[in-house]
Amino acid sequence: MSASVDLADFLPAYLAEAEELLGTAQRQLLAMEASIRRGLAHPRAVRELFRAVHTIKGLSAMVDVEPIVDIAHWMETCLRHADRAGGRLSEASVEPLLEGLREIEQRVRQLAAGKPAASVSAALLSRLEALELEGAPGAGGTKGGAAALALEESVASRLSAAEREQLAAGATGGRRAVRLDFIPGADRAASGLTINSVRERVAALGETVKVLPLSGPTAGGGSLTFVLLLLTEAPDAALLEAAGGPPASVRPLLAAPAEAPALGPAVQELPAEEELEEARRGSGTLRVEVSRLDEALERLAALVVNRSRLSRAVAALTAAGAPTRELTAILQENARQLRDMRAAILRLRMVRVGDVLERLPLLVRGLRRSTGKSVRLELDVGDAELDKAVADRLLPALVHLVRNAVDHALELPEARRAAGKPDEGVVRVASHGRAGGLLDLTVSDDGRGVDAQAVAARAKVPVPQTPDALLEVLCRPGFSTRDAANATSGRGMGMDIVRRIVVEQLGGELALETRPGAGTTFRLRVPLTITLLDALVFECAGLRYAVAVGSVEELIEVDGARLARPAGAGGLCLLERRGSAVPLVSLARLLGLGAAAGTQDMGAKALIVRQRGELVAFGVDRLVGQQEIVLRPLEDPLVRVPGVVGATDLGDGRPTLVLDLASLGLARGGKSARREVSSREEGRLA
Questions:
Q1: How far apart are the C-alpha atoms of 496 and 2, rounded to whole Å?
Q2: One domain, residues 199 and 50
Q3: CA atoms within 13 Å, Cβ hemisphere of 423
Q4: Beta-bridge partner residues of 250
Q5: Could you read off the pLDDT of 73-106 as tens digits, one per residue?
């Protein structure tokens, strides 16, 4: 068994943990930068950033990703000096550290895509190495007294000079430099003893300088050994116990030091830091691959379809006069259990909106530097959660909106001062959940607002008279208000992508509010999940369709005697609802399934939905009932149709289309006709 095959088994866990650590590192570095601007030290942020970078370094060495090890090493060295300085870091150090995190993230993505990690440029390493020289108190002072390390060539050749110096200097500082060999195996893995768990246990006993995988015969009959190089005060017995006992082994790298100099305050605080790490690991959190949750959801989906088939079979037996009372009770209990199981699985798939948006502060920081604008990002997302699949699709849309707000909407400081505004502009992202399984989000700014006349002139169209019409122009593919593209905008893709994600992919709503000189707000409404949902099933022109319950405002009976049929309204009617007129559209005619355009049959039932803030009714033939369905999105662009969000199986083995009635009405031109009818008839019917 080769070492490369064994290391590949650790790669998925490495990628997951590296992504989490990078997020932590970026948050802490931004917190440090904010403290630097206020002239304050931030020891905790320095300590947490150091921990994240140090762990990334150790994990990368464990899976033999040397480019990331090289980057993380010099970042770690700089942060060690900042820690010893009481949590103080120079402002000039922030940008190289952020660049280092970006380079690490880029290589993690390369590994996730099955590509090798790119080598590190000498220029980047020089900038990071300069940070050590800048921050080191008496740099080079330990080199002269460094003792020789007892390491064979296979290990020593893979240590950098700085790592050898770190081991030697740590040992002369009162700790022991030791080598702990851990040999993985199937029996140890079955008992939960893996290199990941060993590394975490050892971290509580000392500082891990490096973890190296070595291939070759082992005492336990395997072919892979993990060598952990440590600085510790713990006895050998404790280290062996952390590694699960023999065939693990411990050996010293240096002779015990003589009189050791006193440790600095930052080093003395490390044991307390390890206690915090122990508390974090004891929080009861379990990382699970999304693919496993997807598999569980697929199995649940099959159970939901089978329950529908069973319901149809029981209904047929009941109609035939068979005694099905007990069977019906069992079926009802099964439905309740499936619903509880669905809720439990969906809770597992939920992620906090705050976690989804954690990259936005870093984005705004980069935009602040590239645009020369003073910007403050405010996040007000509370504890709202949404499905991981929705979150992954939604994040790019929010990134586009925030980028547009900074690049297009906010003015330069001198222009803001001239307008009587503070120099610093504000971009605010807020969210809260709604009844019906929906999440509302807003992205707002206090910038110049959208100039409808300028937009119309640029698009060569009449000036939009309403926010919806203005949004239509802004979301046109290829439309941009810039003459030339720059690093952040000008390609005419941003708002088109936002609408495609929010409306077409997620079946949500997108709206715009803007005031000249005061700012702009984009409102998004998206479903919390797009896989399992409660749906209303109805018949139209002899075919069955489904629509999400949360998208329907009301179900009403259609009384033909109380309908108004204005002439020249393109087949639209108006029905009276609590003293107001609501446009009624024949869904069969809209889908091209009904009779000719002049048909008078609008259906016996109507589903009222909100279409861009206004109510519209869609006439259908018969309401079948409410049912839990499994949504299968239509991914093939050849069969994707506006207003059709996917298909489902209702238990009869035939595909049933799931509709987004609001998008369907807009795609078929129902909005202009609706406005024409409303303007003529609203007053008379009201």
A1: 49
A2: no
A3: 6
A4: 180
A5: 888 888 877 777 767 777 888 888 888 888 898 8
